[in-house]
Structures are given as C-alpha cells and as structure tokens.
Design a protein that fits this description.
The complex is a heterodimer of chains A (477) and B (386).
Chain A: H1 6-22, H2 28-46, H3 48-70, H4 74-111, H5 127-142, H6 151-159, H7 161-164, H8 185-191, H9 196-229, H10 235-266, H11 284-290, H12 293-304, H13 314-331, H14 336-354, H15 366-385, H16 389-400, H17 412-416, H18 419-432, H19 438-441, H20 447-466
Helix pairs in contact in A: 1-2, 2-3, 2-6, 3-4, 3-5, 3-6, 4-5, 9-10, 9-18, 9-20, 10-15, 10-16, 10-18, 12-13, 13-14, 14-15, 15-16
Chain B: H1 7-33, H2 40-43, H3 49-61, H4 64-81, E1 88-90, E2 96-98, H5 99-106, H6 111-114, H7 116-133, E3 137-143, H8 146-149, H9 167-178, E4 182-184, H10 186-197, H11 221-238, E5 248-257, H12 260-264, H13 268-272, E6 277-286, E7 301-305, H14 307-310, H15 322-330, E8 335-338, H16 346-353, E9 363-369, H17 372-375
Parallel strand pairs in B: 3-4, 3-9, 7-8, 7-9
Antiparallel strand pairs in B: 1-2, 5-6
Helix pairs in contact in B: 7-9, 10-11, 11-15
Classes of the chains: A mainly alpha (477), B alpha/beta (386).
Chain lengths: 477, 386
C-alpha cells in the first residue's frame, strides 16, 4: 500500500489512527498488538503471501537471538549470529536476486529438461529494508545490547508499517548518535505517548511529504521518463532530464521518509531522519552524511566497521570503502547500473579520503562546491536511472557531446518543456537548495502554518484526484 | 485569526477531516442510495494480490468525492497550466496530439531488444499466408501518426522538417516488403502533398489544405481522399482489382466535430473552451440516385481496420470515410470491418472467429495506426485463420 494511494490515505490511515488511539494504553501489549495487526494488514495489501514470509523471518530471528543472548560463550554467540546472517542474507538474495539470476540462466534452463521456477517481482517489496533492520538487531545483541523483551516487541519493530516498504532503517535498541536525538525504538515502545503536539508534528510532516510527492516528485518523474526514454535527445534535453531525475529521486524519497516519520509520530513513535539537505553537500563525503542517512550509517556501523574500517591502514580502508559502496549499489538491485553507481560514488569518496576528506574543488567558494557536487551526483544518477550500462553511457554522451536532438526526438520538447514541468523544475530547484528542512519547519506549528498546511494538503489531494498513480521510487528496492 | 482554535488542534483537525472526507462521503452516499458495503468482494474467496488490486482500483474509481472534484481540479489545471491530462499533448496553434503517438516518435525502437519487430513481422506474414491459402491477397496500409506528418504543429524545433518517420516504422515496412508483403507508403504520399500544398511559407500556411484535424488524432477529409486515392491506385497498379462501373458523385457536407483528443480529456469545461472544428467533408453518393454510399457485404474487396476507417463513415457526415472514397476511386462498392483501437490484432481475431467474413473475397486491405507497431492493444500474437 503506497502512502499516496487512495486506499491508504482515505481508508487505511484514518482507520489505523482510530483503531490505534482507541486501544487502551494499559497494558502496553494491547497497543503493540494493534500496531502489529495493522502492520501485517498493510503488508498483506501488497500481497497476502508476504505476511507469511515476514512472520517466518521474525519467528526464526527471535529464536536465534534468544539462544544467542542465553549464551555467554563468544564462540556460541558468534555461531548464532552467523546462522542469523546466513538466513537473512539468504532470504534477501533469494527474493531479490534469484529472479535476476534465473532470468540470466533462462536460455540454458530452456535447453535443459528443467525449466526453473518462476517468481513474482512483487515478492521483493520491502525485503531489503526489513532484512537490514533485523540484521542490525542481531548484530547489536551480539555486541552486547539487550534483546527484545518479547516476541511482540520484535515483531512490531520489524513490521512497523510506516517504515516497512522504504525505511528509514531504524535500529531496535540503539540509536545512531550522529543523526538521532530520540530514544531507541525499544524504549519508545514502552511508553507510546500521543499528545497533540506530537500528532500535529506528525500531521505537518506527513502533509509536507505528501505535497512534495504529489505536486513535485510525480511531475519530475514524467520529465525524467520522457528524457531518458528519448532515442536521441539533444544536450540540453539530456541535462534537463538528468536534473529532473536528480530532483525527483531526492524529493520522492525524502517525501516518503517524511510521510513515514509523520505517520510514526501520529502513532506516537519517533523515527530517525533520513535526509539532511543532501543537495547542499560540498563533496561526496558530505553528501553521504546527508543522503539516506539510515542506510549509510547502517553500512558504516555494520559493514565498514566489521571489515576493519580505518583501523587496518590506509590501503585497507580504501578497499573497505569501495567494497561498502559496491555492496550499497548492489543492495538497490542486481543490475550492473547499480554496481556502476556504487563504484562511481566509492571512487569519489576514495579520492576525497586520500586528500584528507577534501574534494579536488575544495578551493572554490562554498556555493561553487555545492554546485559541482550536485552536478557530479546528478551524473551518477544517470547510472542509477538507466536500464543498462550501454543506455547510461549513451545518455552521458548526450549530456557531454554538444548536439541537437535528432529524428523523432526533435519533438521531445513538447513533452519536456511544458508550463507545469518548467514551474515544477523551478520549484524543485528552489526547494532542494534552501537550507530549512521539513522536519525543522514542522517543529513549530503557528496558526499561519497550520492554515497553510491544511490548504496545501487540500491542493495536493485535489491534484492526486487528477493524476494517475505513481509509486514511490524506493519501493522497488 | 483569534477565533481560530489553537494551531495544533487546527492542523490535526484539518488533517483528520481531509483524510476522513472520502470515506465518510462514500459511506453517506451508500447509505442514501441503499448500497451494501463495497468491501464484500474482497472478503469472498482466497485473498490474492490481484483481488486486492481490483478492489483498490474500484475503490478509487467509484469515489463519490473524487468524481465530483476531479473535473473542477482538471479545469483549474487547464486554466492555469494548459494541462490536458495523460493522453493529450497540446501543440501549437490549438493543435492537439495523442500522447502515445508522440511517444512512439520520440522513443527509440525497442524492437531489436525485446523481439517486438520479429513478432509484428511474423504476425503479419502469418496473416498474409493464411489469406493466401484462401486465395485472398493482402494489401497493408499504415495510417501515419498525426505528429509524423505535422511535426511542426507540435514543436517549434520541427519547423524546418517536412515529416518525421520513425526508424521502427521504416524497419518494419522494409522487412515486410522483403517478405513480399505489399505496403502502401502513405508517409511519402502525405509528405509530398504537404510540400505541394504549402510551397511558400515552409509548411504552416493558413490557406493550405490540412490532411489531419487539429483537435483529433485522425485525418481530415482531404487526408482521407488522399489516402483513399493512394490505396486505390496501388490496388489498380498491382492488378488485384479492376475498376468497376459504379457511378459515384461527391456531395459537400458541412461537419462540426469535437475532436477525439478533446473528448479524451473528459472535462466538459475544457471541451467547451475549444470551438468545435467546422469543415467541409465530401460524402460519396450514388451519381444517379444521390443515395449516400453503402458497403456491399458481398464485395470481393474487404477493408479492415480501426478508427481511421470509422471517421466520416460511421460518424458525421456518413459515407465520407476511407472506404467510401476508395469505392469511388475504384468505382466499386467495397465491404468493411472496423474495430476501434483494435486494428492490429482484435480485427484479425474477429476474422479468425468468423471465417465466413472472408467468403467470396479476393483482396483484403488491412489498415492500422502506425503507433500500433509498438502500442497495439493486444500486442502482436500470431492469429491463425480457421
């Protein structure tokens, strides 16, 4: 169920809020159970079979962690951790990559007597996110954090519906101290408050995210789709499309995160921020401190550190960095374009690391550094957006080889430069390059802001009624 | 604003009212109209993703509030931003274009990558072979996209371009011809005619004869006559049809038409902001009785196709479409079969289901829209004739 779908916005969300807030607060298990049932219903809406997978994963990991916590022998604890990692990564690999592997092997399988099984794409939705949540939990327990008090607590944590499909990847008993100020999820589960200021913050954030998605991201998506689909776009068209995608992916994903955090607050649970003005980054190191923070900190704390981090010398830390970003690319999907995108970022980070975390253009004024970083990141998004590496290189060639559009692509301007698209591109650029973040703006709700937000919500809903549904970009990961 | 409640209450109240509005209005309408709960279909039978999607789609489409507000919101977006929805691309001088046709021209030919070209060629060749087995010859006619013939009415960048023919179209035509399939090249017919009609001002002459309608995705009456003449000439040149002896005359008829592209927007206020197109159409009538042309179900020539056949024939003024004008050129009444939007495959499936429609034919003229090469409603399966 997408946050901008009719079913979620007008039926599930009001229903969930009523059910949840009408459930007595004592004993806490009642509200947790309500939350779990709502989360499973939310996931089942996508495909009822998914709930079985989610439940089985939760049961297995709960048992493994209980056994791990019971033992004080490090070797035994490591064995339970290894079992958990193998199972979770195995599930992830199976559902996320088996389809691609089997598709690649299909010609061979067709020749053999065994045609191979068939899987549905829908089976992958959300798996990357909840698997990473589970892994962070099991590693944290292995590192000495207390396990969940009950199966119910763990089940609610894994299935918590606002975060289920696209994060943020919140941790259970710990917090990322660099990014979060709130209590851990486990601690919040014990209190589950719901005072009006938290509700109003949640509503404000949800509205801002919803408006960003419906009014900006979906339109930017149309621009990017048109440019990336063109046979022979001109240089200007190619840049226009790449910029549109760069804006779309940030606005779309940050909108989802804000809506998820907003819904969390409406339910009385605080979630970590996932973005901090990434378009204002002055380099790639800075970018990754601001972009998809819950994922980048996950990779830092659970992979980079595990590989040795900076502790084993410069050469090893460079290798670790490249490995982390290669895997970060692969996490998004089994496509060479994601691998290329990961390596592209890894190489820029490596370059900055080798220069003491300074970019090659650090001598420029700050605004110029921001602009150069944004353009370099935009070029990287071309790999991310393209279906194949060949498509990506052709598109980049169109961006960097001055030329006019050719053939039918002459007509591309009729699809690209409409009044709406120009207005939305301009609004998008203004939005991403201004420093105030939605989560900060929504902290203080004045009367004027409340009226503005309700008006914005009504306009966004009206817009939603007029356009065809577009899912969030990060649902595919 | 002192009469307003505190900001937190105002915001949360407004938010909750907005998200509850659709469900509440729907429940109220259901109550008034005595309808049962819509959730029933979801609860009967085994839950599945498909069942949920169908329910969700029904929920969205049947929303009373959304249906009431949608036209108003669309109208506002049109007034402010000239937006005309997902199907229509506004061009220049009030011309409108069908988005899939524009996309067909702008996007690369995916035929080589996904085997589409092979399936089209195989499907057409199989159809030709099945017809040949019955002693019926086939002539293929691709109706050009409007944007192929009038790219300059869509984009300023195409001012210097006479026509835009997609590589994919050319590639399919070349492969079909290599297999011995006869194809009428209407692209060069229209391009040449445009150049002749608009020699002075480079293609946007006001007085020039226009071969497509501004608000419609189809050809204009002069376009129909041009296409009919080209197809008829080809049939005669090939020797597949001999000119008959029927005497037809032309009768002028004034037509006012709200184009299909305008109707696709489905908002009355937007439709009304455009003047319906008024033009002269030529009806084909019996030279003696002046009775409008009628198909002869027993004709040896069957013309099959999509809405490019229907326009001016089953719509105003009647007897003015492609088939009637072909009949006049050939001096021979023809037979026709139309499937709106189904010129690629549905029409072949109809013939497969009803083989009697081919009884007594010697020629089938098969027309479909150029964009169907990629966007055919049912794809391009091979349909065998029984």
């Amino acid at each position: 169920m997408s946050f901008t779908s009719h079913a979620f916005l007008f039926y599930f969300l009001p229903g969930a809020l009523v059910v949840y807030h009408l459930t007595p607060r004592r004993p806490p298990a009642l509200r947790k159970t309500a939350l779990l049932v709502l989360s499973y219903f939310f996931y089942a809406w996508l495909d009822p079979r998914l709930v079985l997978l989610l439940l089985a994963t939760t049961v297995v990991n709960h048992r493994l962690v209980v056994w791990m916590a019971r033992s004080s022998a490090e070797r035994v604890r490591a064995r339970w951790l290894a079992a958990s990692l193998i199972i979770n990564l195995g599930v992830l690999a199976f559902f996320k990559y088996a389809v691609f592997i089997l598709e690649a092997l299909d010609p061979l399988l067709q020749l053999s007597a065994f045609p191979g099984p068939r899987f549905e794409i829908a089976l992958r939705a959300g798996i990357s996110f909840f698997t990473f949540k589970i892994i962070s939990y099991t590693i944290d327990v292995h590192r000495g954090e207390p396990p969940a008090r009950s199966f119910l607590d763990l089940a609610v944590y894994i299935a918590f519906f606002p975060q289920l499909l696209s994060g943020p990847i919140q941790r259970f008993g710990t917090i990322d101290r660099k990014a979060e100020r709130a209590a851990s999820f486990a601690a919040q589960l014990e209190s589950l408050p719901g005072a009006v200021p938290r509700l109003s913050f949640g509503a404000a954030l949800f509205i801002l995210g919803f408006a960003k998605k419906v009014l900006l991201a979906d339109v930017l998506g149309k621009v990017a789709d048109a440019a990336f689909s063109a046979a022979a776009p001109g240089t200007f068209d190619a840049w226009f499309g790449a910029l549109a995608y760069s804006l779309q992916i940030y606005i779309d994903f940050s909108a989802y995160s804000e809506m998820a955090i907003g819904v969390g607050h409406l339910l009385g649970l605080e979630c970590p921020r996932n973005f901090n003005a990434p378009c204002l980054a002055t380099g790639f190191t800075d970018f990754w401190r601001r972009w998809h923070i819950s994922l980048s900190s996950w990779f830092r704390d659970y992979l980079y550190v595990a590989l040795g981090g900076n502790r084993k010398g410069a050469a090893r830390s460079y290798l670790n960095l490249v490995i982390v970003f290669l895997l970060c690319g692969l996490w998004h999907g089994a496509r060479w374009t994601f691998v290329a995108w990961g390596i592209y970022h890894g190489l820029f980070l490596l370059l900055e690391r080798s220069r003491g975390r300074r970019t090659l253009y650090a001598v420029l004024p700050r605004a110029a550094q921001v602009a150069v970083t944004f353009l370099l990141v935009t070029v990287g998004w071309v790999f991310f957006r393209s279906e194949t590496l060949t498509d990506a290189f052709l598109y980049i060639a169109a961006m960097f080889t001055p030329k006019e559009p050719a053939g039918g692509s002459l007509l591309l301007d009729s699809l690209l430069y409409t009044r709406t698209h120009l207005l939305v591109m301009a609004s998008g650029l203004l939005l991403v390059f201004q420093p105030v973040q939605a989560a900060d703006w929504a902290q203080k709700v004045t009367r004027a802001r409340a009226v503005l937000l309700v008006f914005l919500f009504c306009i966004s809903i009206l817009t939603l009624f007029t356009q065809s549904f577009r899912s969030f970009l990060y649902f595919q990961f | 604003m002192s009469h307003l409640p505190p900001p937190n209450i105002l915001l949360v109240g407004g938010f909750l009212a907005a998200i509850a509005s659709v469900g509440a209005s729907q429940a109220l309408v259901a109550l008034i109209e005595g309808e049962g709960p819509r959730v029933a279909p979801l609860l009967t039978g085994v839950p599945s993703a498909a069942r949920v999607r169908a329910f969700e789609s029904d929920l969205e489409e049947s929303s009373w509030l959304a249906r009431r507000l949608r036209p108003w919101a669309q109208s506002l977006r049109f007034s402010l931003l000239r937006e005309m929805g997902d199907d229509v691309v506004p061009g220049r001088d009030g011309w409108l274009f069908y988005r899939p046709s524009v996309r067909y021209l702008v996007e690369p030919w995916p035929g080589h990558r996904d085997g589409l070209e092979g399936s089209i060629v195989s499907a057409i060749a199989a159809f030709r072979d099945d017809l040949a087995a019955r002693g019926v010859r086939m002539l293929l006619v691709l109706a050009p996209n409007k944007a192929s013939i009038y790219p300059d009415r869509l984009s300023r960048r195409a001012d210097a371009v006479a026509a835009v023919v997609h590589d994919g179209t050319l590639s399919v035509i070349a492969r079909l011809r290599a297999l011995g399939i006869e194809v009428v090249d209407l692209f060069s017919v229209f391009e040449t005619a445009r150049r002749r009609a608009e020699p002075v001002d480079g293609g946007r002459g006001i007085a020039a004869e226009l071969y497509y309608l501004g608000q419609d995705s189809h050809w204009s009456p002069p376009g129909v006559r041009l296409a009919a003449a080209a197809v008829a000439r080809r049939l005669l040149d090939l020797g597949w049809v001999e000119r008959g002896e029927a005497e037809y005359a032309l009768k002028e008829s004034r037509v006012q038409r709200t184009g299909d592209l305008l109707r696709m927007v489905r908002v009355e206020s937007i439709e009304q902001s455009f003047e319906p197109e008024a033009f002269q159409a030529l009806q084909v009538v019996d030279a003696v009785t002046a009775v409008p042309y009628r198909d002869d179900p027993g004709s040896t020539v069957l013309v099959i196709g999509d809405s490019f056949l229907r326009i001016y024939s089953q719509e105003d003024p009647g007897a003015g479409g492609l088939v009637a004008h072909m009949a006049r050129e050939l001096r021979l009444p023809l037979s026709s079969l139309v499937s709106d939007g189904g010129g690629a495959t549905l029409i072949r499936q109809t013939l497969s289901r009803k083989p009697t429609l081919l009884a007594g034919r010697s020629v089938v003229v098969w027309e479909f829209a150029e964009r169907d090469i990629r966007f055919a409603m049912e794809g391009w399966p091979v349909v065998r004739l029984r």
